[in-house]
Every structure is written in structure tokens, then in C-alpha cells.
Amino acid sequence: MPCSLLANTTTHEYFLDNGLKLIVKQDHRSPVVIQQIWYKVGSMDEVNGKTGVAHALEHMMFKGTVKVPAGEFSRRIAAAGGVENAFTGTDYTAYFQQLHKQHLPMAMELESDRMRNLVLTEEEFSKEIQVVMEERRLRTDDQAHSLLFEKMMATAFQTHPYRRPIIGWMNDLEQMRVSDHQEWYDKWYAPSNAVLVIVGDVKPAEVLAFAQKYYGNIKPSSVPDLAERNPQTEPPQVGIKRLWVKAPAELPYLLMGYKVPTLKDSQNDWEPYALEILEGVLDGNASARLNKTLVRETHMAVSAGAGYNAIARGPGMFYLDATPSQGKTIEELEQSIRLEIDKIIQSGITEQELSRVKAQVIASHVYQLDSISAQAMQIGRLESAGFSQQDEAVILEKIKAVETEQVREVAKKYLTDDVLTVAVLDPQPLDKNSPANKSINLRH
């Protein structure tokens, strides 16, 4: 019998005998429920020569089982008035359906069926891999900013699998075989490597009974735990890296990435929380430093921003990006950004800035509670990265406890040239007949 690990007024956790973790969160404001199944496997688990297989299999998961023919899964969900799709990341692959609560058993029956009963055929694969390759062309090869980001990651990371694109290298997609999908599916799609997240107008006991009925009879299989997987360790960077990418675009673009830590211990780490605050000081709204100084005051840039994600299985990157204003050069823009960073390193941030960013974090957390989808996403992201959904409250409190001096410390420690990669988009004339102007249905 499954064992309940946590039971509060809204969230319950269970483990089924086959290793599947079930998390149920109640939200009774409307008669709607979302089911998300998160597999703890993504592009970082791939090997050279077979990049893109995690995402390509995500497409194939909609191609049918013995009991449910190709297209029938989506048809049934749509007939029930629901929506469904899937997404692949570096650290996970996830599938979801959102629909009226009365149809949850049907959704669970469909999702559990394709966990181990997927039928992979050469016919369906040969058609779908062409869709994946076209998706790569449209969303990366023909999108200058996406292409720059891809090439920057391949330069910034020397050995870690984060250097490879989620969608895969085109040559790997061209060489991919249906047997690669079968091998990936057999290895990673198992109850013990999945987290089932149910959020909405439900009763935990009923959801548990449904999970036992539909998922409980799936045979367990051995999958390496996250802690047992050993992706190549990234060697220390020992100096600035620079690259220039030529691609059709209207304007040049600057992307700077610093290697920084991600969260490993939610209770005892502090640097990732300070980096989250630093991101908010630099970006987030009109009063953030990059927008205020570079866009509104000096008119050095038409846009400028920062990005950082503390929740990841692998190493982190702190991003700064900007598009120069007419008459301004990339070199001038980079120096202006460096000046803003140096101001923080030398003088720190103000208590007013710190309070503003903390208020934004709290507001974002509150707004998230308005959406069952956002609630489920937060749970799934934490669980897939090796954390517990219970860490969400800890993370929020730790961010609220960050002090101004800690923000200055992480800026001084990590925003240095030794761990910096600078990527510049050199705009080329736009081709009006570019394939980017074509349309194709990339939905599964």
C-alpha cells in the first residue's frame, strides 16, 4: 500500500508501490483539474551523437498505444473540453492535461497507458522526425537570437551536457532512428523516474484511488536516481570567451553569460538567493537598473535585461542581454553594462531596491496561486531538479532574508571575466523569402 508522506490542508504526497510519486494539491475555486506527469530526464541525459532524442520522443508519445490509436489521445481530451500538450527541458520531460474534474479518471487512464505501452513505428517516426527538424529550422536556425543563444551555450560550456541544444543538433536528427526512441523510452519512462502532479478541485483520497487503479499496476523498473547520474563535470573556465555570429536580423544584439552556482541545499545555501535578488535589481520593471539607465536615461539601448534560474540539476548561468540604440555600438553597450555591474560591486544596492525586489518575489508567488497550472509547474520543476515541493516555502523565506551586502558579494564574486562568455549578433541583410516566413503545425 502507498505511504502518505505529507498531509496538510491543501497538499498531500504519496508513493505507490512501483515507485511513482504522487503529489495532490487541492484548489477548490473552480471545478477544474490539471494532471502533469514529470519524467526526471531531459536533454542533459543524452549522449553525443543522439542529441534531441528526449524532445523527439516527446513528439512520438502522441502516436498511440495498442489500446489508443494515434491521434485518439488528443481527440478524447478535446472532446472533454480539455487542453493538453507536453514540453522538454534540459532536466525533465513533462506531459499535461487540464480539464473538468469529472474527466480526471479518463486523463489518468490515457496518460498511464502510454507510460509503458507506447507503440513506436517506423512509419510514424519517419513523418514526425521531419516535423522536429522543421521545428529546429523555424525556431533556431531562422531565429537570430535563438541561434546566438545556442552557439553561446556551446561555447560557454566545454564538457557539460548543457552545451547541447534541447532540440538537438540537426545532423543528429538526420541520423536518428526509431530504435533510438525505443531505447530512450525503455530506459527512462518508468514509475520510479516520474512524479505525478494533480492540482485542482479534487479530494486526495479519490485521486490516490485513481492513481492506484491506473498507474499502480505498471511494473517497476530500475532507473538511476538523480544522485547516481554522472554527467561530465565542467572544468573551471580560466578566461573570457568571445564569439560573433552572423545571421539575418534587423539589429545587432549582445548576450553576456557568467557561470554561477545553482541551488543545491535549499536550507543552507545563500548565494543563489542573492543572485535571484541581483537579477531583480537589474531587470524586472521600469525602475530596474538596466532599463532605467541604459534605456531611459542614456538611450544606450532599446532594450536590456537580466536572467537567472536557481533551480536546475546542472551549473547555472547569469545572463545579461541588450540591443543597442541607433548610432550606438556593441562595444559601447558592453561597457555601459559593465559600468552598471561595477556600480553594484563598488557601492552595493539600496535598501529600497532590495525591498522592491522582495515585494516582486512575494507578489509573483501570490499571483501563481491564481493558476492551477502555475502551481503544478512549480511543484514539477522542484521535484524534477531533485528538490521537494515542500522546499517552495523555504525558498520564499530565504529570498526574503537576503541582505544588501550579500547581493554585492555575489556580484563581486561571480560577475568576473574569468567566467564570462560574450556573444554578439552581427546582423546580416534579411531575406524576404526566408523559410522563417513559412508556417507549419508543430503541435504534437
UniProtKB/TrEMBL annotation:
EC number: 3.4.24.-
Ranges where the Peptidase M16 C-terminal domain occurs: 182-360
Gene3D superfamilies reported for this sequence: Metalloenzyme, LuxS/M16 peptidase-like (3.30.830.10)
SUPFAM superfamilies: LuxS/MPP-like metallohydrolase (SSF63411)
Peptidase M16 N-terminal domain segment(s): 23-167
GO biological-process terms attached to the record: proteolysis
Molecular function via GO: metal ion binding; peptidase activity
Name this polypeptide is given: Uncharacterized zinc protease y4wA
